[in-house]
Amino acid sequence: MTLQQLLGIRLPVVQAPMAGVQGSALAVAVSNAGGLGSLPCAMLGPEAIRDELAAIVAQTSQPYNVNFFCHAPPVPDAAREAAWRKLLAPYYAEFGIDPQAIPAGPGRRPFSHEAADVLEAFRPPVVSFHFGLPAPDLLARVRSWGAKVLSTATTVAEARWLEAQGVDAVVAQGLEAGGHRGMFLTGDLGTQMGTFALVPQVARAVRIPVIAAGGIADARGVAAVVALGAAGAQLGTAYMLCPEVTTSEPHRAALASDAAQVTALTNLFTGRPSRSIVNRLIRELGPLNAATPAFPLAAAAIAPLRAKAEAAGSGDFSPLWAGQNASACRVVPAATLTGELASGCSG
Amino acid sequence: MTLQQLLGIRLPVVQAPMAGVQGSALAVAVSNAGGLGSLPCAMLGPEAIRDELAAIVAQTSQPYNVNFFCHAPPVPDAAREAAWRKLLAPYYAEFGIDPQAIPAGPGRRPFSHEAADVLEAFRPPVVSFHFGLPAPDLLARVRSWGAKVLSTATTVAEARWLEAQGVDAVVAQGLEAGGHRGMFLTGDLGTQMGTFALVPQVARAVRIPVIAAGGIADARGVAAVVALGAAGAQLGTAYMLCPEVTTSEPHRAALASDAAQVTALTNLFTGRPSRSIVNRLIRELGPLNAATPAFPLAAAAIAPLRAKAEAAGSGDFSPLWAGQNASACRVVPAATLTGELASGCSG
Fold first, then answer.
1. N or C: which end of chain B has fewer CB within 10 A?
2. Contact B224 A220 (CB under 8 A)
3. Dihedral (C-alpha) B313, B319, B325, B328: value to the nearest 10 degrees?
4. Looking at residue B347, what is its pLDDT?
5. Is residue A153 within a helix (H) or strand (E), and if so which, with residue range?
6. Nearest Cβ partner of A156 from B198, B204, B261?
């Protein structure tokens, strides 16, 4: 079965869910263009999820994907949080921020029964997960309405594990990819492979369709992952300058500049390694800093710095999520881009 | 002009030069099969280079490549060397090695007039470099007999620099590649991109042919880099189990095992970051250790440990060079493999 048959889509192009920089508008545009649009829900509460799903079903009759994180909620650690804020103290002083006034907060929520309650009313045709899979009872709820289930693998072992759990297709996320590494069976960044190495090894290891992600920027990239054995391609960075995306101005500016040539896997923004364009915070604290609280708690202490900097037009403290290949980013409607991308494969 | 026309070869497949694990036998086999065989000279003195070149021209009339490093020779630093040996002291004790009896030594030599004297007699049709290019007078000598000149780029900036120096083709080395990173304009590993991100960006940035390297394992991989804009593919790891390769038994065993799933960029073996399968030394000292002497001086202190361990059948202290995709390595004649690889492209 092709990926298109499996998901009921016309083009083997999946728009990567990008929490914090896009909502229903991008998903609708991509799904209406024949790809699989995705709604990232990791930073949305139940009401926001409901509103966004309502917007999607009002604007498209095509299949779409809703994406959730499924990390174990962290145990807050006051000493670690204090050490983290101490490291950030010079920045708070620079921006005149009262560190006592910063709210703690989860920042990113794992998939929950509360979220499943909302989904049930919409019965989304595709549900994808990052960081593994939710608990069996939660997964059973998603499957109860016939949703196809996708999840991300960053190693061959993770792909095999997901197949054994019965996912319908696996996203093989190469090291080039922007945003959070989906790794869940390992915390060792040494296991993380480039797309060129990962995709063929995953494609050989599992029987379910493989959706390649990481560094794919244009139709030639889509054709290349198909040559490597992928059934389709997932792209995020390529969509980042589309008008349907809510990317901040500093983020857009960084993506369109030479700064995008240098990215890093950093844990500074959430506590988990994610690929961002290197900015002041990453340069000064180092991309992987041992002082960060557990995912997603690191985000709370960064939030006011980011807000102050962005208000002044600066991305110095923003997570400038990007893959290693932003060179093809263009200001182009998402529907146009989706069609162009799919011209890379005959499938 | 195609890569084949430029280099006078039939198939757009370059066998990556792999110093320490192969000599003329592999180069001859690949060149006779229609690809570009390569003789790595970084670890050979002038007489050995002469002998190997004589063996090549005696066995093939096809074009071949000779490869040299062109690093600046390091200034020995006694304190740094002492610190490095102190770090290794527990291993010397474990193996009963007298640290006073370990000879210092360069390990890898940069291209020199002495080497050029040897080359002149053979006029090799292709000369490739790693770590940039040699001094202008040395490069002029190579060009004097009409040799085509290749060098490695790990960033778009390095590719542009090499094109400006007049190289005939550039090897775009993605992060997946085994062995030494060819980086020379930067020492920042954060700039190093996966093949999927690097190749299209380099192909767009320069007009000379781009040879993709890193993570390519089979005909599908060759087809994929051609889709990304490469004129050809360079493969090393894929050849590592060929009978023409002098790979050590522990190295062969590691390549053929699950251990090959986890590689790291490490500076432990030479002082420069190179990709190796993770072994005991890397696990225990960390892949990137600040105590290593400058390239290539780190190698001398490791040599006796490696010799003792390998004599006992262990690769614990060996540089187990490998790219991130050893999964397709097979015990197959290099000529057979070369033909199979080239079936991935119509060019």
1. N
2. no
3. -40
4. 45
5. strand A148-153
6. B261
Residue with tokens 């390595």: B329
- B347 is a domain residue: no
| Residue numbers of chain B with a pLDDT score lower than 50 | 347
Other CB atoms within 10 Å distance of the CB of residue B97: 18
Q: What's chain A's average pLDDT?
A: 96
**Distance from B332 to chain A by nearest Cα, in Å?**
20
Mutation target vs B (from A158, A160, A183, A196; most B CBs, 10 A cutoff):
A196
What CATH number does residue B190 fall under? Answer: 3.20.20.70
Residue A254 identity: A
For chain B, what is the radius of gyration of the CA atoms? Answer: 19
- Tokens (6 digits) for B180: 């030494």
Distance from CA of B65 to the nearest CA of A (A): 25
Tell me the two tokens of residue A188. Answer: 């060792």
Alpha carbons B292 and B277: distance in angstroms, whole number: 19
Separation of alpha carbons B71 and B260, rounded Å: 29
- Regarding whether A282 and A164 lie in a shared domain, the answer is no
Cα separation, B21 vs B240, in Å, equals 8
- Same domain, yes or no, for A102 and A230? no
* Whether residue A193 is found in the same domain as residue A282: no
User: Which residue numbers of A have CB closer than 8 Å to B's CBs?
Assistant: 155-157, 174-176, 188, 190-191, 193-198, 200-201, 204, 214-218, 220-221, 223-225, 227-229, 261-264, 278, 287, 323-325, 327-328, 344
Work out the end-to-end distance of chain B between its first and last CA atoms, rounded to an integer number of angstroms. Answer: 11
By a Cβ cutoff of 8 Å, what residues of chain B touch chain A?
155-157, 174-176, 188, 190-191, 193-198, 200-201, 204, 214-218, 220-221, 223-225, 227-229, 261-264, 278, 287, 323-325, 327-328, 344
Sign of CA dihedral B21, B23, B29, B32: positive
CA distances from A254 to A15, A176, A272 (A): 21, 17, 22
Query: Where are the extended beta strands (E) located within chain B?
Result: 13-15, 37-40, 64-69, 126-130, 148-153, 169-173, 179-180, 210-213, 232-235, 263-266, 274-277
Say whether both A152 and A192 belong to one domain: yes
Distance CA A146, CA A136 (A): 15
Is A216 in Cβ contact with B194 (below 8 Å)? no
pLDDT in tens, A195-244: 999 999 999 999 999 999 999 999 999 999 999 999 999 999 999 999 99
- Do A241 and A181 share a structural domain? yes
> Best residue in B160, B196, B262, B265 to probe A by mutation, most A CBs within 10 Å?
B196
Q: A73: which 2 tokens?
A: 């909620």
Q: Indicate if A65 and A184 belong to the same structural domain.
A: yes
pTM of the model: 0.95
Residue whose pair of structure tokens reads 């960064």 in the numeric block: A302
d(CA A24, CA A40): 9
* C-alpha triplet B253, B238, A232: angle, nearest 5°: 115
The residues, ordered by sequence, that sit 6+ positions from B189 with a Cβ below 8 Å of its Cβ are B181, B265, B273, B288
Give the whole-angstrom CA distance, residue B221 versus residue B214: 10
Q: Count CB atoms within 10 A of the CB of residue B77.
A: 13
Domain count within chain A: 2
Q: Tokens representing A18?
A: 């990008």
Of B175, B190, B221, the CB nearest to A228: B221
With a cut of 70, list the residues of chain A below it in pLDDT: 105-106, 345-347
Which helix (DSSP H) or strand (DSSP E) does residue A115 occupy? helix A113-122
Please give the order of strands across the beta sheet that includes A37-40. A13-15, A232-235, A210-213, A169-173, A148-153, A126-130, A64-69, A37-40
